[in-house]
Structure formats: structure tokens, C-alpha cells
Amino acid sequence: MCGNNMSAPLPAIVPAARKATAAVIFLHGLGDTGHGWSEALAGIKSPHVKYICPHAPVMPVSLNMNMAMPSWFDIIGLSPDSQEDEAGIKQAAENVKSLIDQEVKNGIPSNRIILGGFSQGGALSLYTALTTQQKLAGVVALSCWLPLRASFPQGPISGVNKEIPVLQCHGDCDPLVPLMFGSLTVEKLKSMINPANVTFRTYSGMMHSSCIEEMMDVKQFIDKHLPPVD
Asked: Which residues form the Phospholipase/carboxylesterase/thioesterase domain (predicted)?
């Protein structure tokens, strides 16, 4: 972890009911903490899966008049052509890769780990999965976008996750991260990884939030890609 993250509190964890043979690392949205998502994931948990919900470090965020709040990286604007915090995004991805390495050290292979997140956290989970050399079991990307999309090659990526399963979900009434962002992201993803592995779900009337139906889809995805091994 980089120096400025030492102050971030330890992740909220939902332990496995028996020996953990798989893990879900889930990243919250801007201004939030891992606690709410750890509660949501506790509601759909499987006995062999450990759920890890880290808290972002507190930093000034340009979008919110430089107010300090939990944020994985700086957000300058929310339009598709807004400038992006490239150094911050790359550093945040390295921090997530360290979390994955930590679970590997704990005995859970990376291909038994699903990375996920909501909004800014979902954006970071997508970016990390597409740039890491750690083979992952899947990505859950809720109400988000792909950061630094221009930095990716045109056409398929060559990394270990070129076949990675992705569940992308979005509310059709999202006022903060419009559905169009989700649609553009899913098209970009389908050009980079096996399009058959990309699932895009939208929820009628859902704003920048989650719903029971979405959480059931997330549970189904996790159960499919992290089945019990014993």
C-alpha cells in the first residue's frame, strides 16, 4: 500500500461461515465506506465465500469543491470528456492489486476472487481487472464506467483476464452516472474481452443506488463463478 493509505481503517469483512475457499473484494462509491456494502453482501452471502469491503482513503475531491471525503481517486468531472486523475487511478489500482495479493497469501487463489464495486468503486474494479496480471474469477460493476478508456488498445486485450466474466448493472433513471455511460462501457468491454462473457442488466426506475433484484443478480453471478470446491 502507498504511504497515504496507512490511515484508511481496516476493511469491513463478512467472514465465510466455514473455511473460505473464495473471496469477493467490493469497492464502495464516492463519499461512502465499506460498511453499507458489507451489510448488503451479508444478505446474499455463500458459506464458503469471504467478502472484503475496504474503505477508501479520505482526500479532497475536485468535483465536490475540493471537500475531503472517502475517494479511491480524484474525480474532476462526470462528463465523458472530463479530465481524469490518471496517476490517482493507477495508484488506486495498485492498492487493489495489493489487497488481492493479500488474499492469495491467505490461501485463496486469485482465480477464486471476484472484484466488484459501485460507482467510483465499480470503475476502479473494471480498470484493475483489465490491467492486472492476476487472473480473476469475475467482475461485478454496478452503476459505473470504465476510467482511462482511451489508454486501452483498440480491440481485444492480451492480458490474463481477456476471457473474464463481467456482470455490469445500471439503473435506467441514474441522474449521477447516466445509463449512457453504462451502455458505452459495455460496448467498450465487448471489444476488449470475450463479448459472450459480458452481461449488462438494467433496472427500471432505479436511480444511483441498488435494489433487491440487482442484488439477486449479483448473488447468482457470484454463485456461478465461485462455486464451492469441497
From this structure: 11-225
